[in-house]
Write a structure and sequence with these properties.
Blueprint (H helix, E strand, L loop, with lengths): L1 H18 L16 E6 L2 E5 L5 E6 L5 E6 L2 E4 L10 E3 L4 H12 L3 E6 L9 E2 L4 E3 L2 E4 L12 E7 L2 E6 L15 E7 L18 E9 L3 E10 L1 H10 L4 E4 L8 E3 L2 E4 L11 E6 L7
């Protein structure tokens, strides 16, 4: 009953947000002076600064978008959070994710980068809920034992994206998110309320992967080798993001563009991951 009410409110919030902004004004970000445009394809612009921070700006209205990628499922993990399910996924290199993604999308495949938080076992379970093509894949293992009250969900439906609050009272046995794709992350100033042995070091400069949205038709992705959470959020907002969330960072933060490593794992041996996100280009005129 609680989850049904939550799904209704989430669906209503997602719909209402569209109705309040029917014209979808064009995003014209004031690009920070230290960033340079280094690559442009249909619906995607890639920026870089001298510190090695990369920003991908995705225009959903031009047909570009993101795809949630998963390692091979290999059975069930321990008890799931939120009354749902907690499958295990084989960890693999980001380059493996790229090869699989590029096989599917061909020349339209633009990039892959790391995504959801996970435990460091192999096979691994994801920490928080993830939905792919309308199907709830996992509710994660962490629940409210990690970052309670500090989670948000990025949802994508019919080429419209938004970041909305996430309820810790969720129960996913019968319901799922009202999106085609959804991934739960941590709000930009989160990562503090957690178990004693672990935090996201919000004030330390460490590798970060952040996402943002604007006007429901733009997605922003920051991949940085070293930023505080506050600075990471500021960069995305300078590019025009209205809402921001944090994905996994540290040694998990990695970025491949067109098969080339742009940001590598800081681990001595590049970290394998169970889940990634791919970015694909829009269609050129005449296609």
């Amino acid at each position: 009953m609680i989850m049904g009410k939550y799904i209704f409110l989430l669906s209503f919030a997602f719909l209402l947000s569209f109705l309040l902004y029917p014209s979808f004004p064009q995003v014209n970000p004031a690009i920070p002076a230290e960033f340079s445009l280094i690559q442009t394809v249909t619906g995607i612009k890639l920026y870089r600064n001298p510190k090695g921070d990369f920003i991908q700006v995705i225009d959903l209205s031009q047909g570009a978008s993101i795809e949630v990628l998963l390692g091979e499922p290999v059975g069930e993990g321990e008890a799931a959070a939120y009354g749902g399910k907690n499958p295990l996924f084989q960890r693999q290199t980001l380059q493996q994710f790229w090869l699989e993604f590029s096989e599917t999308f061909g020349e339209k495949a633009f990039s892959v980068y790391n995504g959801q938080f996970f435990n460091l076992k192999n096979p691994s379970a994801l920490a928080f809920p993830v939905q792919v093509k309308g199907k709830l894949i996992t509710t994660g293992y962490a629940g409210n034992t990690e970052f309670p009250g500090e989670k948000v969900v990025l949802g994508l439906a019919e080429n419209r994206a938004d970041i909305l609050p996430f309820s810790e009272d969720s129960n996913f046995q019968k319901d799922s998110f009202p999106f085609d794709h959804a991934i739960v992350g941590i709000r930009e100033d989160g990562g503090t309320k957690t178990v004693e042995w672990y935090s996201k070091d919000p004030l330390k400069e460490r590798p970060r992967t952040f996402m943002g949205v604007a006007n429901f038709d733009h997605i922003f992705i920051l991949t940085s080798p070293g930023k505080t959470q506050g600075d990471a959020a500021k960069i995305l907002k300078a590019f025009g993001a209205e809402k921001v969330m944090m994905l996994d960072g540290g040694g998990s933060t990695q970025l491949i563009i067109k098969g080339i490593d742009f940001v590598s794992s800081t681990d001595a041996t590049p970290r394998t991951i169970p889940q990634a996100i791919g970015v694909f280009e829009g269609k050129k005129k005449g296609e």
